[in-house]
Amino acid sequence: MDSLNAIRKSFDQLVTMTDDDWFYFREKLHQTRFKRTDIITRFGQIENRLYFLTRGIVRHIVNTTSIETTSDFAFPGQFFSSYSSFISRRPSIYEIRPVTSEVDCYYLGYDSLQDVYLNTQCGEKIGRLAAEQQFQKKSSREVFLLTLNPREKYLQLLEEQPHLIQQIPLKHLASYLGITPETLSRIRSSIS
Amino acid sequence: MDSLNAIRKSFDQLVTMTDDDWFYFREKLHQTRFKRTDIITRFGQIENRLYFLTRGIVRHIVNTTSIETTSDFAFPGQFFSSYSSFISRRPSIYEIRPVTSEVDCYYLGYDSLQDVYLNTQCGEKIGRLAAEQQFQKKSSREVFLLTLNPREKYLQLLEEQPHLIQQIPLKHLASYLGITPETLSRIRSSIS
DNA sequence: CGCCGAGTTGAACTGAATCAAGAAACGTGG
DNA sequence: CCACGTTTCTTGATTCAGTTCAACTCGGCG
To answer: Which of A159, B2, B45, B108 has the most Cβ atoms closer than 10 angstroms to its Cβ?
Structure first.
């Protein structure tokens, strides 16, 4: 299977994994599909799955009273999950929903992942490296949010994540940058 | 030694550690002290140490051209490091400096930590759990920065990290919240 | 004692939000 | 496959929160 290969590859980038370990892991994966209107993970729910995205795009939404704020997107070839809920076993403050009309993924249950940590050579190491990656992502986002004004944010996004700008509706991009859709629209038209 | 005990305790909170593992780890720790004017980690330097703070307060400063922005503080009993540089082995975009006149720490070199990962039972697991914690911290800060206005930021800080407000100069607090000292001063006087 | 950095306060300014209305794009069902 | 309704995007006018600039006070330190 092609997308299973993609998962293995993303592991191989992190660590050398024996075939035995891989087989052990692969056994525990399940496949699933979501439609645009589905809610992949709900507010308040304890996240029980770590997903690997094979088709479509999803977004992470912050549970604010009034306005929908986007904290993250995931693209094919990437893992996603309401990760802080997944690792802390506490209610999710994020909701995860499809951006595209169809979303295909594999997923691993929480307990399965703990089994992998216990029963494979490289499990813990992959877990550590993955967590370190997630940390770095949030860490650079902190600097991004803390130091840039709307225009600078858009320019940096344009440079570093152009695929986002190409494929995500403007209003979601705006909420990801922490600005209003009107402001983003004006910035965009002032540039090109 | 009392502060060595604090380190072991912070491990015990994460995982059950054998005495053997602890001795192996403890051997690799060094002790050091900084004065207020010292620079603990410089911009552009590759962070080579993971510190454990036993006395004083330090702050993490973001390398922006004009204004000094604070991304984090560390207090006694906590680990600190220019963590993204430490794990990626790339130049630090943060500078770490003392807030207080004296800062005492233990530290572990990068290579020593890799030895711990390789040669102890629980090394990788501690590493993973630590990285997961760091992730969660940045993750909640993302929501904080993305969704709150200055007044809300201050109120949340007051509620969740009062020790920060008590011990950190206003201008550094302001830069940590992403607002100007004037605004923070006004907010503060409008509240009490 | 005098200096310097930190904090406060006031006034003016400005960038982005808000409010509003119209145009374009989208998807949904007949 | 078209037509309609809904959502998304754009554009303009207005408002306002927070910044900037400036002057003054206070407290600690040399």
So the answer is: B108
Q: Are B116 and B20 in contact (CB under 8 A)?
A: no
Tokens of A163: 């695929």
Tokens of A124: 């813990």
The distance of Cα B56 from the centroid of its chain, to the nearest Å, equals: 12
The Å distance, CA of B51 to C1' of C16, is 41
Nearest CA to B170 out of B159, B147, B148, B186 is that of B186
* Distance of alpha carbon A99 from alpha carbon A184, whole angstroms: 19
* Whole-number distance in Å between B169 CA and D27 C1': 14
Separation between Cα atoms, residue A110 and residue A48, nearest integer Å: 5
Place of tokens 């693209």: A75
To the nearest whole Å, the CA of A64 is away from the closest chain B CA by 8
Rounded distance, CA B36 to CA B40, Å?
10
Q: What is the rounded CA–CA span in Å between residue B20 and residue B26?
A: 10
CA separation for the pair B54, B47 (Å, rounded): 19
Two structure tokens written together for A63: 């549970």
Q: Which of A118-127, B4-13, B123-132 has the lowest mean pLDDT?
A: B4-13
In A12-147, which ranges are E strands? 30-35, 49-55, 58-62, 69-74, 79-80, 94-98, 102-109
Min Cα–Cα distance to chain B from A148, Å: 10
pLDDT by residue for chain A (192 residues), tens only, comes to 678 888 898 888 888 899 999 999 999 999 999 999 999 999 999 999 999 999 999 999 997 667 889 999 999 999 999 999 999 999 999 999 999 999 999 999 999 999 999 999 899 999 999 999 999 999 999 999 999 999 999 999 999 999 999 999 999 999 999 999 999 999 999 987
Q: Name the residue facing A135 among B62, B69, B134 (closest C-beta).
A: B134
Q: Which of B127, B128, B142 sits opposite A145 (nearest CB)?
A: B142
Phi, psi of B120, deg, nearest 5? -120, 155
pTM of this structure: 0.94
Orientation of helix A181-191 relative to helix A150-160, angle to 10°: 70
Per the listing, tokens 């795009």 go with A57
Tokens of B128: 């993973």
The residue of A146, A152, A173 whose CB has the most chain B CBs within 10 angstroms, and thus the best one to mutate to test that interface, is A146
The reported pLDDT for the residue numbered A134 is 94
